[in-house]
Design a protein that fits this description.
The protein is 26% helix and 27% strand. It is an alpha/beta fold.
Length: 229
């Protein structure tokens, strides 16, 4: 029986102190959420030797992105996950845009939400109260209120969920995407494209909660199910 293949976009990490070698990283929690929900995880790796760190200005690096080799990797997959992390490379919003243009199921997590927003011409900004929202050691930090007309509501079947929180940025604007989930401070914790099979960005980290929270696991479950269509 052929299994769904999910490409997880790797995150660049500098070598440790006194270590010159860098890594292309996949979080264990992310890949495990894929395998535990019946799919196979593989890495999508930047073909470029040097990191092209980019924020909202990722298009400044457009000519340096090795698009052909990136697209060849994407074509091996049925869906794509953009992970969280401290920074983004220019190839990440490029992947997000390619998925949107070709209706490839895509899930962006935290910094990965930044990528789906930036890939479609949106922008982000630093929140004024990061001490409240950057709580890496807490399982649940705040509630998110969900639009009942959203695709995301169809996933979790409730208009309020409890989430973790470990971020310092949020969305300023997001053309082509709808803001459908908000925390108490009014930040958009969930965005989606209603005209796609599955194109969702979340500010929280469902991979850290999917084993203990049905709502979080349903995100991965529904994402993988959409990849079969």
């Amino acid at each position: 029986m052929n299994k769904i293949i999910i490409g997880i976009v790797t995150k660049y990490r500098d070598g440790a102190e006194n270590e010159k070698r860098a890594d292309s990283r996949i979080r264990n929690e992310v890949k495990q959420a894929v395998f535990d929900n019946g799919a196979i995880a593989i890495g999508i790796i930047s073909p470029n030797e040097k990191m092209q760190g980019a924020g909202d200005n990722w298009l400044d690096y457009n000519e340096l992105i090795d698009k052909e080799d990136i697209i060849s990797q994407i074509k091996l997959c049925d869906g794509i996950i953009l992970q969280g992390g401290n920074a983004n490379e220019a190839f990440e919003p490029f992947i997000a845009k390619y998925c949107y243009d070709n209706d490839i199921p895509c899930l962006g997590i935290c910094a990965g939400q930044n990528s789906v927003v930036r890939g479609l011409g949106g922008t982000t900004y630093k929140i004024p109260n990061p001490e409240k929202h950057n709580q890496p050691n807490e399982d649940f930090v705040h509630n998110v209120h969900i639009d009942k007309s959203s695709k995301f509501y169809d996933i979790v079947k409730t208009d309020e969920i409890r989430v973790n929180s470990r971020h310092k940025r949020t969305i300023e604007n997001c053309p082509l995407l709808d803001k459908v989930g908000f925390c108490e401070d009014g930040y958009a914790d969930i965005v989606e494209a209603k005209n796609k099979k599955f194109y969702i960005g979340v500010r929280f980290h469902p991979e850290s909660l999917y084993k203990i929270d049905k709502n979080m696991n349903n995100i991965f479950k529904c994402f993988i199910e959409s990849c079969k269509k």
